[in-house]
Structure formats: C-alpha cells, structure tokens
Model the fold of this input.
Amino acid sequence: QEEEEEGGENDKHLPEGSSPNDYSHLYRDVRAAVDLCHRDGSLKMAVAEEPSKYIYEDPSLLSLFRMLRDSGRQVFICTNSLWDYTNVVMNFLLYGRVGSDKTLDWLSEFDVVIVGSGKPAFFQSAPRPMFEVDVATGLLANTDDGSPVAQIGLDEPPPALDEYNMRADEGSEASTSSSAGPGEPSAVYQGGHFKHLNRMLNVRSGSQILYVGDHIYGDILRSKKQLGWRTMLIVPELAAEIACWEKNNEIPSELHRLRDLRDSMSDELHRVEFTLKTLEEQAANGSGAEDVSVIGSMDDLEANDETIEDLRVRAWQLRDARDAIRAEHKSRLRVYHESFHPVWGQLLKTGYQNSRMAHQISRFACLYTSHVANMRYYSPERSYRSREDYLPHEGGN
Done:
C-alpha cells in the first residue's frame, strides 16, 4: 500500500494522460534539454573553451583539401553551425589554434563556405534567403537571392559577392560562379539553399558534387534522394569494426559450418523420424514385421534393413548431436557478437541480416568510410564502382 501511495504521488508529476509506463514524456524532457543546450550556446561555449577535449586535431585534412584543389576540384563547407563556432572548430581542427591564436587562414583552403545552412531544409527547392557574413564582426549583410544589396549609409555593397551579382538569364549559358580562387580566402555565407551553392561552384548537375557528411538523414539521404548528389557517409566506428572483423575473420566460416552441420542433421533426423513413424504404423496395423524394409526418405525411396529399435536409437543420437551443435553454434555466435560490442554486436547487422542503418547506407551513400582523410590514399581521378549484385541461385560471394 505504501508503494502504491508513493507511486500515486509520483504520478502527479506526470503529464496529463500519461501512465507510469509511458516514457514519451521522458523522451520529450531529454529532447528539450538537448535542444536547449544547443540554443543557449552552453554546449558550444564549452567546446570553444577547450577544443582539445572534444575535437581531434587533424592536420591530415589539409593535405587532402590541397590535393583535391590541385587536381582542379573545388572544396566547400556547408554546415549548420554558425560562423563563430565554425571558426573555432576549423582553426583547431586544421592548425591546433585556440583562443587569440585563431586566424582566418583556413578560409584559403576552401572555395565556398556556407554556415547556418539549416540542413536538411538546405536541400529542398523552396527558396531561402542568403546572407553575407562579415568575418571580422560576425554581422550579416542582406543579399537579393545572393546578389549584393547596397546597405543604407554605406557607399558600396558588401564585397564578398561581387562576382555573384550578375544572374544568368533563363536558358542562358552564362556562368555566375563566385567561388574563391587558389590562395584566396573564401567568402562566407549564411543560409540559402542548394541552388545558391550550385551557382557559386558553377555546377549544372548534382552528379558533379561529392558531398561528405556524417548524418545519414540530415546529410546523405536528402542530398542523394532529392538532388542526386554523389554522397560519402562518414562512419567513425567503422575503423574499430573492421579491426575486430579482421581479428576474428575465421569465426564466420566456422559459424557457417556449424549451422550447415546442424541443418543437415535436422534433415537427417526428419527422415529418420518419418521412416520410424511409418514403420510403427505398419507394425500397429499388422501390415509388416519390425524388420521390414522401410522408407529412407520422403522423396527418394531407399530400402534399408534397420529395425524400429535401430531407428529409435539413431533418432536419439541425431537429436543429441544436433542439440549439442546448436548449443555450440549459439555460444560461439554470442562470443563473436560480443567481440564487436557487448550489447549491440556488429555495427550494421541484426543477426545475419543487414540492419536498417545498413540498408540506408547501401541505398543512399555512394561511398562510406571511417574518416574523410582516407581519400588521400586514392587518386582524385579514380572511379568507384559498386560490387556486382548476385541472386542466391547465382552463387556469388
């Protein structure tokens, strides 16, 4: 009764219409707290105070960006973070600079930088306003769909979009590219949508863009499905996953062997039990002696000389052997499962099947890797092709 009274008291704090077993209110509380720490800046201020605690410095990215630009490719950033936080992250990520040591040098590594993009809305066709960011003050200047607008009280329009002010007439072949040249710092924009980016990069087809992101929905699914961009998903856990798989690469074949052996014993046990049942029915009806020739299988009638007692013993032996193999398979599968993660097992599997995440990766990510810097090991001219598809009857590996 005391427990019921205490529970009743606690229930008073639940939202109206919620039961003690309804966790939807808990989700809403957690979601509200996470959203709040993003909106009030507390999360990003903590990162800005001590970037090394939350971000891995990665100078290898510089060599990647420079390799791509030297090959004639353009490199851009499109992030939901605003300018102040983006500047903190990029300074530490590329150069290890923090606090007053921060500079704007990193802008020279990119052709276009878009902050506060609002993905995945950025990938939708509905027009959204674009602003020019004053990198010295963080203030925004209005634009007319990307073209500079003269500010009241100023003699000249903002300089960052100088080459973007001439829009091509509909059907014209004119280009309005406004990306930075080699060695020039990129201008910084906020908001907008994909059409602005296409014009800046002088891109006419989504297949000309390889977009790299780490969010399957916010980055990959929308850009691939709606715009036809080429996509690369970053899955940081993949490195540890592959290392574990290589360490235990002999276990899957052993698991398949045990499963095939278990299945073959189950089939043999089924035939023996069928034959035994047939013999017992014949003996019960007086239609045959115990040593009469019996059916060896349902489809392929094979004569044998086993008696009912022989078949009973063989059925017991097969059943015991099958159960032992099943237990061994289950035990080894659990050990293999826990070697990847003690609870979730393999990253992209649910048992022997691909998970929902794996399905989305195979459908919407043209490429996936543990780190974007892995691209350094491959030529920018390289073409990537998926593996040939096989149906089960084709025997492909």
Observations:
- Confidence is low (pLDDT under 50) at residues 1-7, 160-176, 289-303.
- The chain is about 40% helix and 10% strand.
